[in-house]
Amino acid sequence: MKGTFPIQQFAELQTPFYYYDLELLRHTLHTICTEAGRYDRFAVHYAVKANANPKVLAVIRESGLGADCVSGGEIQAALRAGFPADRIVFAGVGKADWEIKLGLDEEIFCFNVESIPELEVIDQLAAQRGKVAQVAFRINPNVGAHTHANITTGLAENKFGISMEDMDRVIDLAQSLRHVHFIGLHFHIGSQILEMGDFIALCHRINELQDKLEARGILMPHINVGGGLGIDYQDPNGHPVPDFRTYFATYDTHLRLRPGQTLHFELGRAVVGQCGSLISKVLYVKQGTNKQFAILDAGFTDLIRPALYQAHHEMENLSSEADAQVYDVVGPICESSDVFGKAVSLNAVHRGDLVALRSAGAYGEIMASGYNCRPLPVGYTSDELQVSIKNIK
Ligand SMILES: *Cc1c(COP(=O)(O)O)cnc(C)c1O
User: Fold this and answer.
1) 143 falls in which pLDDT band (50, 70, 90)?
2) CATH 3.20.20.10 residue ranges in the chain?
3) How far are the Cα atoms of 155, 188, 196, 382 from residue 364, in angstroms, in the given order?
4) CA 300–ligand 1 middle distance (angstroms)
5) Tell me: the pLDDT tens digits for 284-295?
6) Which of 132, 187, 208, 383 is the most exposed place for a label (fewest CB within 10 A)?
7) pTM for the complete prediction?
8) Residue 299's CB: how many other CB atoms inside 10 A?
9) Ligand 1 pocket, residue 190 CB under 6 Å
């Protein structure tokens, strides 16, 4: 089974480009809102770093999600897309002064603070402005995630967050500073997590930490468990929408929220991953020794995940129904790692065929680079291409 694509309109566009199926995005957002809405204290934010295309952000904004940002540029992108400042959270191990000032001036909801020196700088910059910044502490819970080593973030060896041993000290310090207001704890253990057991381990750790803090008389209104829910890269047509019901139910069952607490989520990949595809054209079919190569006009400058994380993306030849053959599918970049897949089965490929790389909506377009002086890929949406057919008619 192949995905459904407006191939006629594709023929008019310069490849490679990203294509976003907004119907699927809206359906995914509706599912998130319905499933999180079963619990009255769950608040969902979209992790902007997964995809900051303004057309995609606009649709996510309409659904009512908040925004999770990891840079000043992302805060600006979220504000431009219409996310209200008081629904923006700001994480990151290395927040620059201008980024902190931006967050203070815009009065964002919360800084997720990752170190003591950062807390002190936020306090100073807030004091200069006569403001009080709301802060949560990102705690490194030393919980592993069953995912690629480059995308685990919650182990003691990772650079992220404040260690559990330092937690009490940091909270005490925050309570002694006049321009920060401690409102909660933040966690994020990694990405592309499909085993609910990893999230359950996080819940148990948070329960322990909350018990300890409660014993010291410390209560907080917010707990933020980050994102990390994975998508089905092997079968995007069979599983276009992640299992949000089980995901939220897992937290509801295993995390003991205190009265009045709100539980925040920061989902990136699970929101946008499946709605995007990278569409590229076959430049050449080359016979190698014991194999054949399909050489695309897209490379790792357009989609770096296979080169960076050995990630798998399903591929479909949109122009052919001919019997399948096996190819190494590669890009044009002058690097041996510029390979999208080895021994990939595709309907027999010819020069000029369009090939879709599926599940590329998250960490795709946003990670594109200009290496080899290549132009950045454009992102088109199904809504725009619909309008352009109407204009032609
Ligand atoms: C990257 C990131 C997320 C989103 O991760 P996904 O795996 O895309 O859901 C959420 N929170 C923080 C702090 C992050 O850095």
Assistant:
1) confident
2) 23-271
3) 26, 21, 25, 17
4) 22
5) 999 989 999 999
6) 208
7) 0.95
8) 25
9) no
The CATH 2.40.37.10 portion of the chain extends over: 274-392
* Secondary structure (3-state) at 288: coil
- The verdict on the CB of residue 3 being under 6 Å from ligand 1 is no
Residue with tokens 């069979």: 238
Instruction: Name the CATH architecture for the domain at 23-271.
Output: Alpha-Beta Barrel (3.20)
**How many residues can be counted in the chain?**
393
* Residue 347 near residue 364, CB atoms below 8 Å: no
User: How many CB atoms are closer than 10 A to CB 211?
Assistant: 10
Tokens of 372: 């080899």
The burial class, CB within 10 Å (0-12 / 13-18 / 19+), for 124 is: middle
Q: How many CA atoms lie within 13 Å of 305's alpha carbon, on the beta-carbon side?
A: 25
The pLDDT tens digits of the residues spanning 34-43 come to: 999 999 999 9
CA 254 – ligand 1 centroid, Å: 21
